[in-house]
Each structure stands twice: as C-alpha cells, then as structure tokens.
Amino acid sequence: MKNLWDIFYKGLFAQNPIFRLALSLCPALAVTSNVYNALAMGLSVMFVITANNVVVSIFRKWVNPKVRVPVYITSIATIVTVLILTLQAYLPDIYKELYLYLNLIVVFAIILARAEVFAAKNPVFLSFLDGLGMGAGFAGAMVFIAIVRELFGNGTLMGIQVFGASYDPALIMILPPGGFIIIGLMIAAFNLIGQHQDKLKAAKQGSDA
Amino acid sequence: MEEYLKLFVASAITNNMVLTQFLGLCIFFGVSKNLNASIGMGMAVTSVMTISTLLAWAVYNYVLHPLGLEVLMLITFVVLIAGLVQLLEMVIKKHAPALYNMWGIYLVLIATNCVVIAVPITNAESHNGFITSFVLAIGSGVGFALALILMASLREKLQYADVPKSLEGLGISFILAGMLALSFFGFSGMITL
Fold first, then answer.
1. Per residue in A54-105, pLDDT tens?
2. Residue A22's pLDDT band (boundaries 50, 70, 90)?
3. Is A106–B78 a contact, with Cβ atoms under 8 angstroms apart?
4. Which residues does residue A157 pair with via DSSP β-bridges, in sequence order?
C-alpha cells in the first residue's frame, strides 16, 4: 500500500515536473497570470498524462520498441484532440482563452517522459497512479504560481478582490517578465529547501554512524 | 508590402515567441549555455519552422480543410513535422556534412517542440494566407534565434559572476530571462497588429 502511495506522491514534490524536473515550463509561465486559467490548464494536463499513461501501459506489450515514440505521440495527439473538442463544446470560454496552449499539450516533454520512463514498463494501475501523481504535481505547481502572480499582480484570487481597493497592484507580476522572475525565485526556494533537507539527512546519517 | 514588414517586426520583436508568449522554453534554457550552440540552434529552428509552416499550410488548406477534417489537424501537424525533421536530417547528413556537423544534432531536438508547432496552428486557426503564414514563420524564427543568442551571450558572462548557491543554474537563468523580457517589453508600443 505504501508503495502505491509513493508512486503517486513522488510527482507532488520530490519529482515535481515544474520545479524539480524543469519540464514543460512553457505553460507554467504562459497561463499562470490568473488562477482560473492555471487550474483549467493544470487539470487538462492531468487528464492527458493519466489517460496517455493508461493507454501506453495497456499496449506496452504490443508496441515494437523501435516505433514507440511515434506511437506515443499519436496516442497523445488523439487524447489532446478529444480534450479540446470536449472543452470546445462544454467550456467555450476556457477553450478560447487557452486555445494555443491546449494544442501544445501534445508536445509537452513531461507526458512523453512519463510514457517512456514509467508507463512502458509498468502495469496499468500503477501507470494510472503515476500519471495522476505527476499531473497533480503539475496542476498544483501551476495553481501555486498563479496564486502568487494574481494576488500580487492584481490583488484578486479567482477574480475576487482580496486586498481591497487601496492596494496598488504590482502589474509586473502578471506581465511576461514578472512570470520569469517569479519562477526563477520559486526554483531557488525549492533548491534551498532541497539542500536543507539533504543537509538534515546527512547530519542524521552522520549521527547514526 | 508594408503590412508584411510590420508583421515581420511584430512577430520577431514585439510578440517575441520566447519572451512574450513563453514558447520553446525548453530549448531556450537548454541550449543557451554557449554562444556557438545557440547560433546553430537558432538557424535550425528558423529553417525548420519556415519549411514546416509552409508544408502544414498546404496540407491544411488543400487536404484537411476541403475534406472537413480539421479535427485531425493536431495529429497531422505533429506527424508531419516529426517526419520532415527526420527527412531533413538524412538529406543534410548525406549532401552537406559540414552543415550537418554545425547544427545537425539540434534538428532532432526540435522534432517535437512547441515553438515549431505553434506557428502552423496559429496560421490554421486564423486562416492566414500563404504569404502571411510565410512571413509569420520567418519572423517568429528570427525572433526566437535573436532571443536565444542574446540569452547565450548573457549566460556566458554569467559564468564569471558570483551567484548565491540556491539560485545557480536554472534559477538565475529565469531571472535573467525576466530582465530580457522586460527590455523587449519596451518595444511593445511600437507596433500593434
């Protein structure tokens, strides 16, 4: 049971797709100027990565390793098309706003990476969990970045005024340059925490020995 | 003519792919460690983007659109670009080994990259004509190369700087890119499309 939990959990922090693996950074910057878009994008990616992991895992014994990458890409493209058509029908506002980036999910390195590294070698249920965990880590990171950017850049959260009318928003946060700088600082913070944990671990091992 | 010139400058500078639309960041941060590599990559991206945009334009307007198969756009473009890159790699390796040594290895990297596939999708979505698509592709490619080369030049200088340990690597590069984006932001009022 613990093992299953580990498979899910590692995507959240230890191997967080955005902060730790630095994969699929484009959407992390492009759609995080407000929380709503970030959440929609995060959930979309979570859906695609999980569905693709399941598909790849089901067919893993029949796919010839030599042609695996084109097969994976076709599978991802199909799932993304399904997602886009669904959004177009039921959530046209989000579809319009995120159109280009939704299409670009097809080339996100993280999805191909999970298919190649995990789903191609593991049974269906484990691959499903792995996709869910990685997707959740991705969505979580997106929302986290968006909360910081929207809160300081606009004084709102999900469009609701938080700081009151007297707050003078730091507009740069929601502009492109602010996105780069914020993510740079967040990566630094993640590294700092990681280094600290390593140091604690080393100290603990030292005292054990 | 003036209209196309405007489009070119806009897509290269004011709507720069990397710095205002955040496309192709993987390459942008991955290959900008040294100047020579970034020049090779910039050339590779510009040429692949131009060729694939034209090809995708033809396929979309002469095959997918008349048959009502716009749904298959994404799959078609991905396969098309990946195939094209493979083909280009083989042809260049055979006929121009010198060129291949210079930027052949980067070709493989861009087979499935967001910056290359974004332009055909934009063109299909806004039903651009042939020349508009062409100009948009070249402009975006040049803009990408420009940003990449600027970034590489900055990062080469950065090697001599004393950066806090937790910011080393990706962290400081992002902040640097933020500064670069800020300077490109200064052009934003110049051209509006």
1. 998 998 888 887 778 778 888 888 999 999 999 989 988 888 888 888 888 8
2. low
3. yes
4. A160
- DSSP state at residue A155: S
Contact B74 A81 (CB under 8 A): yes
Instruction: Pick the residue from chain A with its C-alpha nearest to B164.
Output: A188
d(CA A44, CA A25) in angstroms, rounded, equals: 15
The reply to whether B192 falls in a domain is: no
ipTM: 0.79
Q: What's the pTM? A: 0.83
Please state which of the ranges A18-22, A82-86, A125-129, B18-22 shows the lowest mean pLDDT: A18-22
Q: Which domain holds residue B105?
A: 2-185
Instruction: Please give the helix or strand (H or E) that residue A160 lies within, else none.
Output: strand A160-161
Q: How many domains does chain B have?
A: 1
Among the ranges given (A116-125, A160-169, B43-52, B78-87), the one the predictor scored with the smallest mean pLDDT: A160-169
Q: Which chain A residues have a beta carbon less than 8 Å from that of B72?
A: 81
B95's CB contacts (< 8 A; 6+ apart) are: none
Residue B107 lies in a domain: yes
Q: How far is CA B7 from CA A182, B15, B20, B43, in A?
A: 30, 10, 16, 20
Return the domain boundaries, chain A: 2-208
Residue B100 lies in a domain: yes
- B127 domain-assigned: yes
